[in-house]
Amino acid sequence: MTFGFTPPSTSSLATATGASRHGRLLEPSEWMSAGIPLLRNPREVVSGLHSRHSPVPSTAVIAVLGPEEQLVASASFVQRSASADGWEYRNALLSRLRRVLPHDLRRRTPVRTAVLLYCRDGDERWTPEDGAWMWGLRDACTLHGLRCGAYITLTRDGWQVLGEGRGGRRPSSDSHPQRLGDTVAKFAPLALHTGGGSVEALRRTAAR
Prior knowledge:
Elements: H1 10-21, H2 28-32, H3 42-53, E1 59-65, E2 71-78, H4 86-100, E3 113-119, H5 128-144, E4 147-155, E5 158-161, E6 166-168, H6 199-207
Parallel strand pairs: 3-4
Antiparallel strand pairs: 1-2, 1-3, 4-5, 5-6
Helix pairs in contact: 4-5
């Protein structure tokens, strides 16, 4: 199981080197050895999140799955700056998680898993920006009492679960969202965007 690698530019390489030195970027080998749980049906998860959030390039979708891989809550946001510093991404992810889901820090063992779908330009090969998102996802999960799950990229070529070698051509960053139906039947009705969810929706989330 291998990653493709896109050589960064000189400026992005300097940024990535600085982030790695501070431990805020995960290399492919580090991610693959981290024991990230496999998704049983990644195509279903990707299709469901694509239908709910309609991501375009620079959009991150953070989703929390229950023990049976059912969707508990999700949020999407546009990351304005492309960075190779996981600290910035960790803070953005943690902020969204706190808005849509109470933490599980009192549990000895996490029972819910967070996965991240990031829609970006380029191809499916790993980049330093992906490494920063991986670091950010892992750290945000630790601070919210969740298990760190898959990191998925969505590009013009399709979707790819980095580190697993699983992917598909549809949906892609150019795809029109499909209507929610039987293909995402296991997803719970709740999926919160952070751009103006109602107080009542947040209360329903907390009740779960």
